[in-house]
Amino acid sequence: MGISAKDSESNDYELREIVQDELGITFVYDRVEDNIDETSAWDQAHTDKRLGNALSFLMTSLFSFVFTIVAFTLTRTPENSISMSPSPNSEPLPTVFESRS
Amino acid sequence: MSPNLIVKFIFSKSLRYELNYLSDKFKPRKLLLIIFAIIGGIVVSLDGAQAFFTGKDSPVPQNWTFLKKPFNARGIASAIILAPYLAIWYSNNRDTEEENQNISQITKKVTLPFLEEDLNKFLDSLCVKFSLSNSTRIYIMMPIRIKFGQWHLQTITNTQNYDNIEKRVSLKLDEGIIGDAFQGMNYDSRLRPKYIDITNLHNLPANYKHLSQNNKDLVRRDNKGYVVIPIFDRTFLSSLFIIDTNYPNDLEHLKKEELYNEIFNWIGSEPILLTLIWKVKNNGH
Questions:
Q1: Would you list the domain boundaries of chain A?
Q2: What's chain A's average pLDDT?
């Protein structure tokens, strides 16, 4: 069965080259594909997933950036607190009656 | 640390495994959530939440002076806002930890014995088919995290003729025959078995790194040859499939093309199981 957890994995492999190096002999194989469509589909799905992850990361980063800018702008503006009561130091607003008199 | 060592570390396999491990462990979105929580906590505690304690219409009685001080109010407001985030974060971590423990138990009790049994059957079939002796052993070694930036190759499963004491062998990623072979492996090597004859030790490469004394005491001393095959799960080199023997007559058989064909088919084209084991093993269980 093997560690691919498939019942039958029966690809053919073709020896292309034998390379002798310092440590030993390397046998270079090529796979004679018999399930290339399945592999391509997996590759495509994997690529799509990666693309999705990258987009998600970019969107989150962008949102984080905007969020940070807004947050710091709010904390740095002196009039950031929304209050219905007038400030004790501010000039009273002129009324219509005052302007007529 | 000298510049040469830093450059060496940057291009080392250890760093690649470390980054892979860290990307599994710390998801960027989790870090971003923490940043949101902190910024949100600061912003809200500076105004609205703080006003709950210090504002004119605050329900907090005026004589509770401790809560009326702006500094204390800000601290308490931040804590109230950050607490749910931290609680969720902690709870998620605990859940993940628990899941990892369960997967780890299943791997230990079910997956690895299954793999070992399969490996034994496979060795038996190879011995019959290629007239290999009983001295031929198969085992799978995998990079395991020892500490930050330090990874060692350790045996995760083996055939029954593999000595129990050898399971304690822990090779640096460039140590010994297996480490040396491992260093030279990349994605292009996925279908490249390496046959290494060590009957003549003078043929070893000049930069060969000998086994540490501890490992030397553990491994079978009279090995004559190895076959090392990388196991890739797509682009990820998760482990090494290794055959060794101390019987000289086996060496000729270990060079047969058909043998490698059999091994490739046993490994399969999607050995995701070993990636799972890699993840479980490296989550500290």
A1: 12-75
A2: 66
Least CB-CB distance to B32: which of A3, A64, A81? A64
Q: Which residues of B touch A75 (CB under 8 A)?
A: 42-43, 46
Rounded CA-CA distance B110/B106 in Å is 5
| pLDDT of res. B168 | 95
Average pLDDT of chain B is 87
Residues in chain A with CB shorter than 8 Å from the CB of B257 are 15, 27
At residue B57, the 3 state secondary structure works out as: coil
Q: State pLDDT tens for residues B20-71.
A: 888 877 777 777 777 777 777 777 666 666 777 777 777 888 888 888 888 8
* A87 token code pair: 């400030």
Q: Each residue of B208-226: pLDDT tens digit?
A: 999 999 999 999 989 999 9
Smallest Cα distance from A6 to chain B, Å:
8
In sign, the C-alpha dihedral spanning B80, B82, B85, B90 is: negative
CATH numbers and ranges of domains, chain B: 112-281 (3.30.450.40)
Please give the radius of gyration of chain B, using alpha carbons only, rounded to the nearest integer: 27
In angstroms, the separation between the Cα of residue A55 and the nearest Cα of chain B is 12
CA angle A19, B272, B125 (to 5 degrees): 65
Interface test with B, best of A23, A69, A82 (most B CBs within 10 A): A23
Q: Which of B35, B56, B118 sits opposite A1 (nearest CB)?
A: B118
